[in-house]
Amino acid sequence: MGSCSLCPSGSIPGVAVPCLVLTVLLHLVLSFNVDVKDTMTFSGPVEDMFGYTVQQFENEEGKWVLIGSPLAGQPQKKTGDVYKCPVGQGHGLPCVKLNLPDDISIPHVAEVKENMTLGATLVTNPNGGFLACGPLYAYKCGRLHYTTGICSNVSSTFEVVNSIAPSVQECKTQLDIVIVLDGSNSIYPWESVTAFLDSLLRNMDIGPKETQVGIVQYGENVTHEFNLNTYTTTEEVLVAAKKIGQRGGRQTMTALGIDTARKEAFTEARGARPGVQKVMVVVTDGESHDNYRLKKVIEDCEKENIQRFSIAILGHYNRGNLSTEKLVEEIKSIASEPTEKHFFNVSDELALLTIVEALGERIFALEATKDQLASSFEMEMSQAGISAHYSQDWIMLGAVGAYDWNGTVVMLKDNAFQIPRNDTFYNKSSERNEPLAAYLGYTVNSASVPGDVLYIAGQPRYNHTGQVIIYRMRGADIEILQRLNGEQIGSYFGSVITTIDIDKDTFTDILLVGAPMYMGTEKEEQGKVYVYSLNQKTFEHQMTLEPIKQTCCSLLKHNDCTNHNKNEPCGARFGTSIASVKDLNLDGFNDIVIGAPLEDDHRGAVYVYHGNGNTIRKEYAQRIASGGDGEKMKFFGQSIHGEMDLNGDGLTDVTIGGLGGAALFWSRDVAEVNASMEFTPSKINIQKINNDMQKQRVFINATICFKVKLKSEEATMNETSIQYWITLDAQRKLSRSLFTETLERKMQKNITVKGSECVNHNFYMLDQPDFRDSVKVLLDFNFSDPESGPILDSAMPNSIYEYIPFTKDCGTKEKCITDLQLTANAAIEGSSSSPFIIRSSNLKFWVRMLVKNKKDSAYNTRVIVQYSPNIIFAGIEKISKDSCESGPNITCKVGYPFLTPGEEIFFDIAFQFNVSSLLENTVIQFSVTSDSEEHEETLADNRGSIAIPVKYESGLIFKREPSSFHIIIAANDTFPKYINSTENIGDEININYMIEKGDHFPMPPLTLQILYPNLTSVENYILYLTAISFSENVNCNSSHSTNPLRIGGDPPFKTSGIKHPLKDPKINCDFYHCASINCTVAPSNITHVNISFRIWKRTFKKANLHSAEVNVRALLRSGNSLLILKKENERIETIIKISKELLPGHVPLWVILLSVFAGLLILTLLIFALWKAGFFNRPLRKKMEK
Fold first, then answer.
1. Domain of 839: which CATH number?
2. Which of 65, 332, 365, 785 is surrounded by the fewest CB atoms within 10 Å?
3. How many domains does the chain have?
């Protein structure tokens, strides 16, 4: 946004002038009714923060834009000021500075107006005039400055009526102060005492008509170092104080020192002035030796109204490691009431300097009265007026500096003000300590509810995340109703709050809370706005608004940066300003405008949100970006106000400020445009088009009418030009009709409308068109010049359409009486006892539809199919693809334009199972209807349904690694009597079970049971469980704990002998005692369960077996009855084979005996075989005998 060159000659340089040029860049959208083309801008110095606040204003002289410039008056008198900028009073008139600081004043105080930032807060008074605040207004007490803040009521004629500074009180600068110093030997080092005096006295205005100071030193005796009237300037007192030496003394006569000061130092002879407040400062480091007199001495001081400050130096006690309890109690008794405001203690003499500032402030008692000096010091830096708001009954002033920057809200009513106590807004139930620098009052507002008013204050630094407090007034008491807390540290939640009555019923509907420094994902200050709806007297979070994400590209942070940001920080600070504006788009609801001054590299932007019902729409209606250069004009959106019609057109206009300028945006009127279309004839005769014997062209006349009405009451529209576009057969790629005058399907025209106007156009049907659907005629329209003048009402359509149907042919009958029949068959089936199992391989199935017409022609016959959410429409076959429309239901047109008597049509609908919706039954309901009439008694076969019970086979994979083990027990293995480690038990078995999610179906909750043989019948160990581990989604419990014998601890485990050696080669849970591990498995992509055992080697070493097999069984079950598992995934067994080796060279006796027996048996059989064969008959001997 830049300034313009329409200043008249002689106008003041750098002062705002109105301009009628385009100063805002915006991508135009037709529904935008804030005009960014024709705006009025005002410019001023960036360094003066011109545009920091803006307000629309009206008085008898005319209409104005008030612009705050908090640093105006540079460089000498940088007080800040307010400018009045005329609107509609002639071109080229400059903004005029009101010079309010000259007339803003609080009597009887030494004011410091420089840097008072007047104009930082600017609020229109609903009763006329406005309130301008300077939160950094200060005044002096002595040489100390106190920033209390000030606000001034300015009349409608721009004159200061009165000034309000609730924290300011007349300073008691005429004080007679006597400092009573302990100069005994225990004070060390003395130089620290003189440094303390120098620092304290340097900030006092000392003189005969100002403050007077005298010093008394005591130890064993009392000495007047100098009297109240000895020196007349601060400089003289400083020189004398530096020369004071330590008098010494072994005793500390504190009562004597105080009494001497009362009797002698405060006499007129020594300079005491009648009627001037007496102040005594007692500095000591030890218990007094005359403390028996102390009570009486203090009572005498009270009678003479001597205010006493006491300082306990604990150095001597700390150096001697002595208890300070009695010392502190005695020194507290010296101080005036309230003690906490008049008593100080320091750890040693060197620490005296740390209390100088606080002591000086309390001596001058900023909020004191004559009867209560130095009793309160809480609002001296309050900065009242940093925010301001007019409620129904009160004026609210935020005072962030009150109570050590915890802040408060000053409530003003009938020229009297109420300042809540420091603890009024504490949450005593949850806050252990008082909040630190919460900045309560940074922003204030109120909400109207039936019969009551809610007051709202933000404290953006509360607990570092920010808080908003909602309270109400009960007389002079404050009742806290609710607290809203921020969610991110440093977001400044609660720095901006706005309430708005959306539906104009006088009651508040929503509260918007800004958190402009909310960090985005890239650490940019994106900002957020939280929207709360008001339910009776409680605010409930409704939604969160966010800006367009800013691209943060800096050469310092990004090497590949091309379009880099020049300014830091990067972001938007969305929510820096939030303004409720009167109904911009004339829809009956008030609207919201939100500033984002850091957008576009600190050029800034604002977002317009339209009201809707009793809330706002979450999506913004318009974004207005600054056209400034980011230097002469930046932070556009810093301030916003939109409550008035400034140009007399009956529409609310919006003023937006930034640093260096402000702009006034005119609202554009909203027009209701009602369009209608009528056709003659209203239906198309199918016979005329389809009859080959009497074919004739069908012509149709379209009458298009427009009626225009402006929504604003003040405006009247004479004439307007509307541009419109007509499209024939709009839903078709190829049109079945054309315009007579252009022989095209589309036509664009303009029409001038005054109130209402109609126009005619002719078109004709092409020969032999299809009749599947009616002819759709689409009409789009807008104003011929959409960038100027009114805009179309966004709540009304800017396009309409009508259908021209084809006529029905019922022969000689007046009505077509049809009888339709519909049957359907699914390609899958299932029952409750045997449901259909859905697998990844059979996700798709078909349903065949058969439609039959038993009587007269059925026109526009339609099959309507509804289906359960666990299936989705996948396609159509046997009829044209575009015959069916799918949405919540499937609607298929069959036999268009009519289904002839006796005609049958069948087609297939493909469905696919929807694995994101699991149901027990797949249900398909179907019906057929037409535009022809059908008697009720024949409707029964027009509809039907299919219900198929289903279950889903989860595609999960259940496996374990490894699948088997082979353990060999060496022949020379031994088993120790005492076991110190589980490694001595035997070989380790690690089984890793893994469950993987399948591709198509969701993972059900599972139960996993792992069974393993752990003991024989005589309690000899088989498998010894040592460890269980599993994924985060698993929870396992074991019937037997891991390492139940606590092997590895102290003392070592002593083994016992093996009873009844193992004889069975097959060891499983069918015949042996098994332990179980039971796991619940929540759905996850990958799940692991790892089990570790040790083979109890001794059991198998002593077994009467050469080898054995141990079976570990894992059972998996689905926790969802709809999701079943594959059979192979329900049970997995792991085999552990155990073999024993024999000793080398050693043959067991049973083997020897068995071998001898076998050898003898074989020999016997051999001899018997030879005998049978006649081997022993010896025929050779017989031959020799012959």
1. 2.60.40.1510
2. 785
3. 6
Query: 1186 in a domain, yes or no?
Result: no
User: CA 1148 → CA 372, 507, 876, 1065, 1077, distances in Å?
Assistant: 115, 105, 81, 21, 42
Task: Note whether 539 and 607 are same-domain residues.
Answer: yes
Are the CB atoms for 594 and 566 separated by under 8 Å?
no
Query: What CATH number did the domain enclosing 988 receive?
Result: 2.60.40.1530
Which token pair is 1166?
């051999």
Q: Give the pLDDT confidence score for residue 26 in this predicted structure.
A: 32
340 by Cβ neighbours in 10 Å (0-12 / 13-18 / 19+) ranks as exposed
- In whole angstroms, what is the distance from residue 1169 CA to residue 16 CA? 138
> Domain end: 319, 337, 367, which one?
367
**192 and 301 belong to one structural domain:** yes
What is the reported pLDDT for 417? 87
Specify the pLDDT at position 24: 32
DSSP SS3 for 355: helix
**Structural domain includes residue 11:** no
Tell me, yes or no, whether 244 and 216 share the same domain.
Answer: yes
CA distance 449 to 506: 8
Contacts 24+ apart (CB under 8 A), 114-117: 114/77, 114/78, 114/79, 115/78, 115/79, 116/79, 116/80, 116/150, 117/70, 117/71, 117/80
Q: Which of 904, 894, 908 is nearest to 847 (CA)?
A: 908
pLDDT digits (tens, 9 = 90+) for 551-581: 777 655 556 566 667 788 888 999 999 999 9
Is the domain of 1032 the same as that of 1068?
yes
Of 387, 403, 425, which residue constitutes the final position of a domain?
425
pLDDT digits (tens, 9 = 90+) for 328-361: 999 999 999 988 889 998 888 787 888 887 788 7
CATH of the domain at 742: 2.60.40.1460
CATH code where residue 259 lies? 3.40.50.410
- Reduced to 3 states (helix: H, G, I; strand: E, B; else coil), residue 399 is strand
Dihedral, CA of residue 765, residue 768, residue 771 and residue 777, to nearest 10 = -20
Which of 573, 980, 588, 981 has its CA nearest to residue 795? 588
DSSP 244: P
Flag whether 24 is in a domain. Answer: no
Q: Say if 451 falls within a structural domain.
A: no
Query: What pLDDT is stored for residue 10 in this prediction?
Result: 33
User: Are both 243 and 271 inside the same structural domain?
Assistant: yes
To 10 degrees, what angle do helices 190-202 and 356-363 make?
50
What residues contact 935, with CB distance under 8 A and at least 6 apart? 817, 819
Say how far apart CA 331 and CA 312 lie, in whole Å.
Answer: 6
Nearest to 462 by CA among 428, 495, 497: 495
Backbone torsions φ then ψ of 536, nearest 5 degrees: 60, -100
Strand-strand pairing, 1053-1054 and 1123-1124: unpaired
Beta bridge partners of 1131: 1115
Q: Where are the beta strands (DSSP E) in 238-305?
A: 277-284
Look at residue 295 in the predicted model and tell me its pLDDT.
Answer: 93
Supply the CATH number for residue 75's domain: 2.130.10.130
Task: Find the domain containing 190 and state its range.
Answer: 175-367
Strand order in the sheet with 904-913: 820-826, 844-853, 904-913, 871-877
Give the number of other CB atoms < 10 A from CB of residue 417.
Answer: 17
Do residues 181 and 137 both lie within one domain?
no
- The parts of the chain modelled with pLDDT lower than 70 are 1-31, 89-92, 142-143, 172-173, 364-377, 429-435, 554-564, 687-696, 713-717, 768-772, 808-812, 814, 896, 1142-1150, 1176-1186
Phi and psi based region of residue 49 (left: phi greater than 0; alpha: psi -120 to 50; beta: remaining): left
Residues listed for the chain: 1186
H-run or E-run covering 686? helix 686-690
Residues 111 and 67 in one domain: yes
- Rounded to 10°, the helix 325-334/294-303 angle is 30
Domain shared by 697 and 797, yes or no:
yes
Whole-prediction pTM: 0.61
Q: Look up tokens 């519909």; give the residue.
A: 822
